[in-house]
Amino acid sequence: MERSLQIIALSALAGAFLSACSATSDVTGDSGAIATQTPATSGVPDVGSAQSGEDTTPGEDTSPVVTATYEPVVDDALVAAAANIGCAASAERFRDTMVAMVNDSRLEARQCGSRSSPAVGLVSWNDQLAAAALNHANDMVTFNFFSHDGSDGLSVADRAETTGYDWRAIGENIAAGQQEVAEVHQGWLESAGHCRNIMNSLYTEVGAACVTSDDTDFGNYWVVVFGNSR
User: Fold this and answer.
1) Are 105 and 185 in contact (CB under 8 A)?
2) Can you name the residues that pair with 229 across neighbouring β-strands?
3) How is 40-108 classified by DSSP, letter by letter?
4) Among 46, 52, 98, 137, which is most buried by a count of CB atoms within 10 Å?
5) H or E stretch covering 110
6) Are 222 and 201 in contact (CB under 8 A)?
7) Residue 186: beta bridge partners?
8) For the chain, how far is it from start to end, CA to CA, in angstroms?
9) Is 198 helix (H, G, I), strand (E, B) or coil?
10) Span 165-209, pLDDT tens digits
């Protein structure tokens, strides 16, 4: 399968694939960048894929999606049960488990590759970010590819804006092949770029999706989008 442009953090890990990217606008954060999309590097061997590295700036809002607000949650029971939560979980169970896993990780300092990341504030679920994640997961399944660039060439920032999310900071972790939430989240924590997205203090909201299909190369396609709205 042809891949476009630049080699990034697409990494083989226990037979699965992971990739991460992030962008900031009007704020500076761990990347030290303003209005720049920055491909993350991985701590495991590169197998070669691609994503856009062009500058990213917010565009004009489209009609916003009505977003329910959920309180940040840290739930030991949800974290403990994450090994049993896969793509087929109910929407509510999937949502709560993904938020619990991210927040559990953010509660304590950790090493993300060569960078020490301090404990940071909790995130809450955002339906617009979840819609952006689901759109991309469906796209990867429909066209059987794995990249941060959509089949239409759009980036995570573009997809978030399409849902009406007016972002100050945006990031995305994707993965393919993992069977359940605990596995995919642990893989992200063990990879520097993905870990930094999880631990990025700029992000205050998260949305996620997983779509599965037997007619694809990897079966399960996972997307988590991190954001901070204006």
Assistant:
1) yes
2) 167
3) PP-SS-B----B--SB-------SPPP--B------HHHHHTGGG--TTS-HHHHHHHHHHHHHHHHTS
4) 98
5) strand 110-112
6) no
7) none
8) 38
9) helix
10) 999 999 999 999 999 999 999 999 999 999 999 999 999 999 999
Identify the bridge partners of residue 6 per DSSP, sorted by sequence position: 51
User: How far, in Å, are 68, 99, 105, 130, 194 from residue 71 at the CA level?
Assistant: 10, 10, 17, 15, 24
- Those residues whose C-beta lies under 8 Å from the C-beta of residue 83, and which sit 6 or more positions away, are 180, 181, 182, 183
Handedness of CA 42, 47, 49, 54 (dihedral sign): positive
Phi and psi of 163, rounded to 5°? -80, -5
Q: Are 141 and 119 in contact (CB under 8 A)?
A: no
Q: What is the DSSP letter of 215?
A: T
Tokens read off for 168: 């100050």
Q: Round to whole Å and give the CA distance between 149 and 147.
A: 5
Cβ(123)–Cβ(203) under 8 Å?
yes
For the stretch 111-123, pLDDT in tens is 999 999 999 999 9
The residue among 133, 123, 113, 136 whose CA lies nearest residue 196 is: 113
Q: How far apart are CA 31 and CA 18, in angstroms?
A: 20
Q: How far apart are CA 84 and CA 108, in angstroms?
A: 24
How do strand 36-39 and strand 16-24 relate by DSSP bridges?
A: antiparallel
Vertex 106 angle, CA 169 and 90, to 5°: 85
Question: Phi/psi of residue 220, each to 5°?
Answer: -105, 135
Does residue 193 contact residue 42 with C-beta atoms inside 8 Å?
Answer: yes
